[in-house]
Design goal:
The structure holds two protein chains of two kinds. By secondary structure, chain A is of the alpha/beta class. Chain A is built from 13 helices and eight strands. The chains are: A alpha/beta, B alpha/beta.
Amino acid sequence: MSASSVAASPSKVSVLADLFAALKTQGRAALAPFVTAGDPDMETTLAVLESLDRAGASLCELGVPYSDPIADGPVIQSSYTRALATGFTLERLFEVSRQATQRVKMPILAMASYSLIYRRGIDRFVADAKAAGLTGFVVPDLPIEESDQLDAACRQAGLALVRLVTPTTPPERAEAIARKSTGFLYCVSVAGVTGARTDLPAGLIERVKWLRTKTDVPILVGFGISSPEQARAVAKVADGVIVGSAVVRHLAEAANQPREAFLHGLEGYVGELAAATVRQSA
Amino acid sequence: MTPVTPIPAPPLSQVPDALGRFGRFGGRYVPETLSAALEQLEQAYNEAIADPAFTAELDGLLGAFVGRPTPLLFAKRLTELAGGAQIYFKREDLSHTGAHKINNTLGQGLLAIRMGKRRIIAETGAGQHGVATATACARFGLDCVVYMGAEDVRRQAPNVRNMRFMGAEVRPVESGSRTLRDAINEAMRDWMGSVETTHYIIGSVVGPHPFPRIVRDFQSVIGRETVEQCRRQLGRLPDTVVACVGGGSNAAGMFYPFVDHSDVRLVGVEAGGRSGRPGDHAASLSYGSPGILHGSLSYVLQDVDGQTADVHSVSAGLDYPGVGPEHSYWRDAGRVEYTSVTDAEALDAFDLVAQREGILPALETSHALAWAMEEAGRRPPEEILVVCLSGRGDKDAAEIARLRGLSADGTAASA
């Protein structure tokens, strides 16, 4: 996407809608990896985003490091700590986002604590994100009751505000959340913090199928997914798969390798996941 | 303190609203996984306080188990030393387990039972809330896990031991600054995965709605008793009421029954630490700015991006970068004055109260005592100043000896 198209860009929500429509035609689900911005530094993040894009990621969640992330398990929490220790700031987040969104074709959404958004000022945070070419937000600690202001700012700016439903969300509430969600709906697979798990939780497939009957918004499933087998199972019923801690851990474990080697490894892993999102014809 | 917003027309005590707002502060900023449990807790609490059986059971425990009402004591020799207003102590240190924290843990323990949750988690800083939670769980037969920063495990060892004696599991938290804030993070993470079977007993007036209200209400027994004791023993309400503020639970419980008595001056004392420089103190209301931490909007010590700042206090219970949202509301309404006292001043107050009143106060409480003694000297003798003596200092004795280079028996170390 050229830089000039950003200024006159259509709503990012419709960009996402087009993306999901195209994936549907191709008979595959979206693959949405998560990476932490600035882990271990911004230069690496930029290279990683390009790798993910090459390897077949459909969109990407860019995690914004926060000092007290209560929804995250040890892997993502540690990545936030590493990024903050090497001087992560929001200014650098928007700068690297600006560069990344000019170089990659996949939409990038910021996963950010509402603490950071509130502190910067809602309108300013949204304006900065829009100027940086970001597609929208996932705000893991903002329930629907508290989200009117951010929702209004995102609608004004044409950015997506992705909401989350979890296994503890009662059915009526899940419907209300789905109605408010723009871009897609994030279906959290387990009650708990982020982190790779070996099995798919019981009832997940049924829950996604039920949600499917309640909303037309694309449904992406995340939390605990790390293997191609899990991705394949989820891709059968959902519109996409979010892989978080597994990618972050890959980066952490490869930190001592030369950059080319670990990017190659990452592309291999993400490529396998991407292949797993192709639905077998019946 | 300059009022930022005008005092609203309805009484200050008529908060929070249905969304958990104290003015602009409070609210519920949590992952969706916790939303249903917080709804359930709010509903269970509203039903419980309307149920005479619940109130009767809690009152019975506060009497025979905790030893309430705690006395209001005239601090005679301290008053003489200060040479001004009469100083009184509200003796929460005489509560079972040695601090006010038990008022809340018994109430929330009964709520957990009503909700059918038999596993309890808690965070603790100084260890007083951890001990009070372990105590309530032992009394009620509930499973108990307490998260405690590794630094606090070290400096509050007697409380760690006592929690274990009562059957609680203490999990040291090694992340971040290894203090209260990190213990809350870990307790929240536990709760994310256990919420359907577990109740989280938050120890202060912090966290997402309805916790700030519930904890304030359970702690308000302190202020209600004080109002009544002042009327009965002294024939009138006090001129000034003082309490220390970390998260702010003893202060909220003490102040709340007084907030609509506008002629009573209310003063909260925060941890001034080593200095007013960032990182050297834990005085959120004195130096912080509005932000969101641990599920509610309140004054927070944070950087320009909203990352929580590192804080310091000699007192583990005040070593926290946030504060309860109702305190932020009272601050901006100009109803409560907030000030701070340094580590050194608190330690001096500890000595004075030990030597002149025969009471070892907690280091947290020593902050309120330091300010109270200074202020008493500036006020005329007919004035009455009540200090919430929120806890006893046994837990701090070893750490104070260590800070002063004394050996375990309190003499100068020879090595």
